[in-house]
Amino acid sequence: MRIQAEHLNYAYNPGTEFAVQALKDVSLTIEEGEFFGVVGHTGSGKSTFIQHLNGLILQPSAQKKYKPKKPKKGSPVPPPSVLKIGDFDLLDKKTDFRALRSKVGMVFQYPEYQLFAETVFDDVSFGLKNFAKEPLKPESIEIAVRNALETVGLDYAAVKDKSPFDLSGGQKRRVAIAGVIVTRPEVLVLDEPAAGLDPLGKKELMALLHRLHADWCRTVVFVSHDMDEVAQNCSRVAVFSEGSIKYTLTPQELFSRFDDLDALGLELPAAAKVARLLHERGIDIASDCTPDGFAEATAAYLSSLRKKDGGCTDAEKDGEDGQA
Amino acid sequence: MKDVTFGQYYPVDSFVHKCDPRMKILFLVGYLVAVFLSADFYGLGACAVVLVLCVAFSRVPVRSVLRSIKGVLFLIVFTAILNLFFYQGETTVVIAGVSLQWGIINITVEGIRFMIFVMCRIFMLVMASAILTLTTTPVSLTDGLESLLTPLKWIRVPVHALALIMSIALRMIPALMDEIDRIMNAQRARGADFSHGGPVKRVKAIIPVLIPLLLSALRRAEELGDAMEARCYTGSQTRTRYKKLTFTWRDPVIGLLCAALIAGVVLMNIYLPPIL
């Protein structure tokens, strides 16, 4: 499903002394099949934006008690907002938001804290039973739960009757993710899915997301602080700052815009950091943001030097690769 | 969930905000005494004047103060109805020739007067307490309480521990509110429905929120305990304070105001002809 947002605004506690403008004129289109990254600081509006995606935060016009206001005469008419996911119009209060939520799965930060049931099986099937229009057959529930648990890399027979609170941290997170994907959402939104994991756990989790993207959920939207994670995995990245989108870039472009990212106070991907240091010393290497891509580009650069004058020593090359 | 305005501090700079919390607590107690001593509308009128002064000098918008009445609206209406129906008065109200009296229900002129009196009384109690919590941060409120309860230490009541428990509890309320929001959102994303269905269904729907909330509260408590122990907290008697409470010129002023109010109410009770 295609996600389309135009001129989206949102304020918490509007009209009171505690009002906070969380989104300002946000426009963004995420095509079906993308692996889309969202980066930005705490308070940049990215969480507010992704909570819009499955109707947890509703625009005023989508709320039940909404009555359209007559525009004041003489005041400029703001451009009309649009928020559509597939065929769902999220600005319309008649939209069936429960149906939307079964199509757009949402994995919150530290999803393991949402586990509550006595067994892993019960917890994973929670969403499935909630979204079902009529009671499901036990067999079909079992198949779906088994599928979901195996997809996230857990042994169905070993964990299904365990209490989710007896599992390790990484396993809990997998169970929680299984509890979201069990309804086979077409869009999967994840808020900092790798937060608090060790490097190996992060790697495994990113591999899991790619597996999900390949054959489970067509579109993946994922929020992260870690620029390396974003640069290495996403097809496109939106950079949020102070409630609006500053840039929408590919990882390659992200790589070349390091001054802009620096100005927003965002950590650069490691490869970009090295490239920047080299740039300051007068060496420009164009590549994408992945360590592999950067190493290749560096190697190509060095061999071109060698061809030119044959004078570059091996020691220099090793040094640069080591940094990368 | 975000509408809970329990003790919501309203951050502005004003005369009332700057008063010592101990004095404000004493003032509130004195004010409540005055409200309860008032035997007639004269006394309540004097109390109302003081209340208006407090609101004016606190610079808190009247709307915010009035909002705190919402929580006790039911109580006010309930007592009002009870008084209206069952007050033992003499003059039964007659409307268009029909006497409003059915069995034990007897609506009298005195009853209506007394109902209004009681409503005003509860209203003022709530408003006065609201001003205290709106103008005093929870932390200085507990500091003030602890300081006022010092005499209890002499009979071995663990005042400091109690004050600490209270301030931690107050401190954790917003954190738990956020947590509730987060967990509810997470479960709603998995299709949980909190706003439809009968009472049984709704209570059942709360379980997926309650269990994670309880776990997270326990986890927080443990972490906080560890953090306090890591900083060598023992709750000993010799602890000193970072913020010392000090009286300023404002405090005798409101103390005198309070005393004058009580004296005035007592005098009015004695010398003015009763309305009730």
Describe the model.
The complex is a heterodimer of chains A (324) and B (276). With 324 residues, chain A is α/β, with parallel strands linked by helices. Chain A has two domains: 266 residues, P-loop containing nucleotide triphosphate hydrolases (Rossmann fold, 3-Layer(aba) Sandwich); 52 residues, no CATH class. Helix content of chain A is 41%, strand content 19%. Chain A has 13 helices and ten strands. In chain A, the strands form two sheets. Chain A has a six-stranded mixed sheet, sandwiched between helices. A four-stranded antiparallel sheet of chain A has the order 2-1-4-5, covered by helices on one side. In chain A, α4 packs across α6. In chain B, strands 1-2 form a two-stranded antiparallel ribbon. Chain B has a two-stranded antiparallel ribbon with strand order 3-4. In chain B, α3 runs parallel beside α6, α3 runs antiparallel to α11 and α9 packs across α10. The N terminus of chain B is likely disordered. Classes of the chains: A alpha/beta (324), B mainly alpha (276).
The chain-level mean pLDDT of chain B equals: 86
Radius of gyration of chain A: 23 Å
Biggest beta sheet attributes of chain B: 2 strands, antiparallel
Of all chain pairs, the largest interface belongs to: A-B, 25 and 21 residues
- CATH class assignment of the largest domain in chain A: Alpha Beta
What's the architecture of the largest domain in chain A in CATH terms? 3-Layer(aba) Sandwich
Global outline of chain A? flat
Helix content of chain A: 40-55%
Largest sheet of chain A: 6 strands, mixed
Task: Please state how the strands of the largest beta sheet of chain B are arranged side by side.
Answer: 1-2
In CATH, what is the homologous superfamily of the largest domain in chain A? P-loop containing nucleotide triphosphate hydrolases
Order of helices and strands of chain A: EEEHEEHEHHHHEHEHEEHHHHH
Distance between the termini of chain A: 38 Å
How many structural domains of chain B? Answer: 1
